[in-house]
Amino acid sequence: MNPGARVLVTGATGQDGSYLLERLLERDASVTAVTRPGDQLTAGLPAQVRPRTAALDDAEALRRVVHDASPEYIFHLGAVSSVAASWERPAETMAVNTVSTAALLESMASTEGARLVLASSSEIFGSAADSPQTEATAIRPVTPYGVSKAAAHQLVSLWRGRGSFASTAILYNHESPRRPETFVTRKITAGAARIARGLQDHLTLGALDARRDWGWAPDYVDALLAIADAEEPDDFIVASGRSHTVAEFAEAALHAAGVAATDGLIVSDPRFVRPADVAEMVGDASRIRSRLGWSPTVDFDGLVQRMVAHDLALIDQADPPR
């Protein structure tokens, strides 16, 4: 990516978007950020970034943004990204996640040589027959979110077949202190910090045996940039290659907070168990490692420790220990 490159980012106020903006500004890119109407986080965008408001399910609004920004690179990160929310609002999830992708791909025709990278998801594989999953693993989602991302993923493939530089980053779970507590990982690390400071007495979670492949969000943003600058467009799994259970994540967080994981400290509540869920997700990132030279720099224990340290610091800043 050359200095001054014109870049359009959707989902700029989310976890990945915020890290991506930082990376892009380090490269002196000219960045336009698409934000949702009423998104109060827009005010926190860096001053160098030009905000444009457009609902992701408004195809015409997205076309106008692309026409005006004339981007050389499009990073499509914006989405209804919560699996739980997709069960509550399946129609909205389909509209936002799929219509936006179709509109951006369609609009690329007006910007010669533009490159698009979609933040796809491991949820497209659903009940995968393969473990670990590769880019050739059959797509068979089991959640409304997974269905919406699978549709978007396949739209990218269709446009790539027509000659567009359209790639997907099949992102496995990736975390950081910038996750809101609506995500189970941040719920765990914030809860562990509160337990350590005597502000909470246990963690209440959903399925403790669900296994996920967790990575460090800034590493995965670096993968997005590598995919955008690749010689050829393609699908790339971005994963650590190791899986852990939710219970293991909670135990690691408590350990990082200096708390012994005694009986009764981690509780499973059926109310927080999803109607349908995948048992284990673990990705094989061999393609992006071999072709683009990407590999994660922070392991599972490292990301948990960083998140817990952040949450302990938040508590201590609000009420310094005496």
Topology overview:
Elements: E1 6-10, H1 15-26, E2 30-35, E3 50-53, H2 59-69, E4 73-76, H3 83-88, H4 90-107, E5 115-121, H5 144-161, E6 165-171, E7 174-175, H6 184-196, E8 203-205, E9 211-212, E10 215-216, H7 217-228, E11 235-238, E12 244-245, H8 246-256, E13 266-268, H9 286-292, H10 300-318
Parallel strand pairs: 1-2, 1-4, 2-3, 4-5, 5-6, 6-11, 7-10, 8-13
Antiparallel strand pairs: 9-12
Structural class: alpha/beta
CATH class of the largest domain: Alpha Beta
Mean pLDDT over the residues:
93
The helix content, as a percent range, equals 25-40%
Beta content: 15-25%
Number of helices: 10
State the fourth-level CATH superfamily of the largest domain: NAD(P)-binding Rossmann-like Domain
The end-to-end span amounts to 50 Å
The coarse overall form would be globular
